[in-house]
Each structure stands twice: as C-alpha cells, then as structure tokens.
Input
Amino acid sequence: MSQLSLRSHGETHTGNVREANEDAMLVDPQLGLFAVLDGMGGHMAGDVASSTAREALHAHVREHRQSVEPKELLVQAINRASAAVHAEAKSRRDRHGMGTTVVACLMTSDHTAVIAHVGDSRAYLMRDRRMQLLTRDHTVVAELIANGAISPEEAHRHPYKSVLSRNLGAKTEARVDTADLTLQPGDKILLCSDGLHGFASHDGVEQVLHGAEDAVNASRDLIELALKGGGGDNVTAVVLELGQAQVPRSTQIIRQSGSVAWWQRRELFLRMADRRGLPHSPICAVLSPEEAVDIVAGNLCEAIYRDLEHTTGINVWTYAENLGVGWLDQDGRYSDLRELLDLLRAAALDVVADIASGGADYAITLEVAVMRSFTVAEMAVAGLLAERLRQVDASLVELESRVRRERPVTEQPTVPFMRAMKVDPPTPDVAAFLSRAVTAAQEQLFSMVDKIGADACLQTAHKVCVDPVGDAGLAARELFAGRALEEAGITALLEGLEMARAVHIEAVKR
Amino acid sequence: MSSMAQHHAELFRVVRPEALARLVEVRGSIDPGFAAIPAEVIRGQFDMVLDRIQSYLVTEDPDPYRAFAARWMAMRVSAGEPAQNLVHAVVAIGDVVVQVAQARLGPGSQLTDFARAIGRMSFIGSRLLVEHLADELEQRRAHYRALAGTSR
Output
C-alpha cells in the first residue's frame, strides 16, 4: 500500500446562544494526535475542564509516544487527563463538579489509527460517500436504548437525553472506549462535539463532509451548518483527510510558469491600465496619475501574482475588499467601482494576450486563472454590498416601526421586511399559538402533491417555533428552505408563516 | 452561433446529467444551506441554473440570465441565505461542471477551451448578481430617504 498523506484542520465556535466556548480541540499532525473536548460546569469551569484535559492528554502522548503501544498510550493519556481535571475540580470550590468529554484519534501508522472516547463527543468515518458513526454516546439515554429499556423515538423526549453517563473529571480514572481503524485513501475522519451532531442532521453533515474540497473547508462548512441549524451550543469540528495529494497539471503550470510570466509583465500591466484610463477613475481622484497606476494597478498586479503562485484567491479578495470598503464607505457609487474593475480586467487580459502571442502553450490556462481572480473580486464586492443591504434593511425596519409608532420587533432582518425576532424564548401560550398556526398550514398542505417534503419542512418550522432557542426568523428560513416560489404548496407555506408570525408578534406586544 | 459556442454547448449537453448528479451530491459544500434541502428540491433549482448556463453558452446573451439571477437571489435571500452566498454558489456550480468535463475528457485543449467558456460564464454570473445587489441597495436607500422625509 502506498503512503497516505494526512491533512487536518479544526474549527470551533461559541454558537448562537452560549456566552463562552467551553469546547477545546487539539490538532497536532506531527504527533498524529487529534481531539475534541466539550467541557461542562458553571462559572467558566467547563472551559477550564476541557483545556486542562487537553493539555494533560497532549503532554502524556508527547512524552510517551515512542515507548508505549498506541492504544494503551491513548487510554493512559485520557486517564491522565481525567485525573488532572479531577484534581483541579477538588482544588477550588467554584470548580466542583466540572468535567469534560473527549474524543481522540491517534494515528498509529500511515494506514491505521485508534479512536478513543468518553462522553457524547463523536467520531465519524467518511468512506465511499457514506458517513459512519464510530462511537457510541455515553449518555444515560444511550445506555437505556442499548439495554432495550427505551426506544430511539422515546429518547428524543427523554428528560435525561443530555445527561452523560461517563465523563472526565468525575473520577481520577475514566472508562474509555476504543476502536481500531484501518484507513484507505480518500477516507475522512470527523471528530466533533454535540454542538454539531445536536444541531445538524446526519445527512447534512455527510453532505458537507463528502463534498468539501479539503479539511479546512470541511470544518468551516460544518460549523456553519451547525450555526444554521440554530447553533444552540458550542460547536467544534476537527477533520482529518487521508489520501495522496494530487495537484492537477494545469495548477502546476500556473504556479511555475504562469505566475512568473505574469510578474515579468508587471510594467505592461501598469501601462495598459494607464492607457485604459485608470487615473481618470473617480476612485483615483485623490491620487496623482502616477500614484494611481503605481498603487491601484501595482497592488492588484502583485495580488494576482501571489494568488497565481499559491493557487489561492485571498490576495485579490483582500485587494478588492479594501478597494470597495474605501470607496463605498465614502458613499462612492458602485458603478465607479465596477468600471475600475472592468478596466483593470481589460488590462490584465491585454497581458494574457501578450503572453499568448509569445506562443506560450499555457496562455488559455493562465487566462482562466486571471479571469478567476476577477471573479474573486466580484465575490468580495458582493460581500460588501450584501452587508450594506442588511444594514439598510435594519435601518428601514427601525424607521418604519417608528413611523408607524409600532414597537420595533427585530434587530437583524434576514428576509427583507420579514422581521427576525430576537426576543426571549416563546412562552407556553405563544408556543401553543405557533404550533396551532403551523398545524393549520400543514393541514392545507395535505392536498398538495409534495406532501412529504412540505411535511418535513413544516415539522422543522414547528420545532423551531417552539424550541427554546427558536425564533420567527429561523422559522421563516425553515418555511422557505428549498422551496421555489413557483412550486405548488408555497402559498400555503407562506400563509402558515404569516399566521405564526402574526401570533408571535401579538404575543410579544402583549 | 459561432462554431466554438456550438461546440461548448454540445459538450455542456453531454456532461450536464453527470454535473447535475454531482451538484446534488456535493450541495452541502457548495453552500451549507443547501445541505438541508431535500435532494429532489435542490435538483430542480440546480437544473434551472444549468438551463441558463446552457442557453448562455449557446447565445452568449447574458440578459435572460440576468432576469433569472435576480429571481433566484430573491428566492434564496427570502430563505435567509446571505446574498453573497449565491455568488459563491454560481462560481462553485461552474467549477463542478468543469470538474465533470475534466473527468470525462482528460487534460487537453478541448477541456481548456471549455474551462475558459465556463470561467467567463462564472464571471458574468457573479457580475449580474453583484449588479443586482447594487440596484437593490440603491432602491432601499431611496426608500429610506423617502420614508425619512415623511417622518419629519
């Protein structure tokens, strides 16, 4: 078997509800050690528990990596972590009862790994497009299901569904479950806290993990998925990707030849930008013609070069964002920004044409890469405009409320003029109104062709309406999610939303 | 229609079913918001986008695409998606089409030409969406100014 390369990345986020992040993660590719820990205990003790355990785990593996068999080493390290948390908890009254979960992966060779866990942080294996859970939650409910005492359906409503049956810190030693893995090229391993699997569906996580370009994108997209699902808890995702790194030939050519050819024609680019009227752009009004060319065109030329060299878009993105922010913040017109980017793009294509006229066989590939740079610039400008659109929407909502002498009911509109409520959790009577309204809409949908899709959509909306972290904004998203305006059934969905929204607003006003 | 445009449109027709299947498969990485949408629903949305790409490759006329871009953005923004995500999605859709073509054709001038055509389409699609965003922003600002005037 050929040697497998390993790429890894982790992301963590406080979530939409919690004030502090009590999750911790460990990503050490050199040591081959990766972990996610989810701390618990009030007054920031959860944070202390997870970070204390992480440091102890890391130190033990680092110290004994060469001398102890891997599985034994990982179990030892987790027990060491439990002892460290336990000692810390006993040392201070305000830390009594603190603890943490852990799920850890230790690479034992190029093709093997051992997974160990305590608590409800999970490990998944993605192979052949299917995602498989490698761990079993150590929760009271999971134990009851395993014993056949309750059904999985009952588990969702069980009052102890979040209560852990094992953790690190309660005792000096923990009962650790382990699993050996033999890995294949293309495998991905996901370690995550319950902030991910509690707020994103298995299918959603599988989709993101399978489709993501690399470990960095996968972990970021997973966090976003959990936040879109409500983000009701701290969320952490560590992704390991195994496979031979393959760089397409076109990428190699651009990195090696294309970037050099581009940089060698820097003067040509500046000249063409000048000839196409760069100094006359209103955006360059405060600069002399020479400064305009040197700064505005020169910086872009370098940004494109850096991006070609590293096959990324971050330099052009930053350039376009800075240019756009500077201009739009002084109430500059978008059309001026568009015209400036257009003349710079034309100058860049002049350079590519010059390279092509020299007979370079990579000229078209370079043109694709340069066009990509300007597409990236459009993406950056889109972000700036979208942010301003949100701000104007928020101001409009506030102004409209004032004009109509209505109490403002929103801070962050997600749908134009459809207020994203940021209020306390619905009281039982509000929840009941919402539930009734959604049920009414649901009944209308029973005559529709797409019953299953609509039913799932409304059920989620209902859950969001009555969930303690739910709000009408999220309900709106759920009701709209995946629906085309032209589709049969959308009218009933909108009516359902309107009904729910009306009672919610009335309830808030009361 | 130029012979090159005809050639690109023909190649697009060939790779389209596979590209559509792949788009549905990787929808969560195109936009995490898509992951929550049932496969049959998102397939319909992607198919509409591919329709427009195909017509653009044939006619090289962005105007029908412009109207569709505005409608699609309105729909996704109504779903609570940040508007800029749609620009990312348009670019990612083009990338998937090129990847599928690459797998079918292998490296060569045919693929490079096709990648260039799709790259231009991605740029134009992004630009149309950005222009639409700018128009929306201008309209809302005008609305705000008008409303602020009446409230005095």
User: Anything to note?
Assistant: The radius of gyration of chain A is 28 Å. The first strand of chain A starts at residue 6 and ends at 13. Chain A touches chain B through 68 residues (CB under 8 Å). Residues 363-403 of chain A form the longest helix (41 residues).
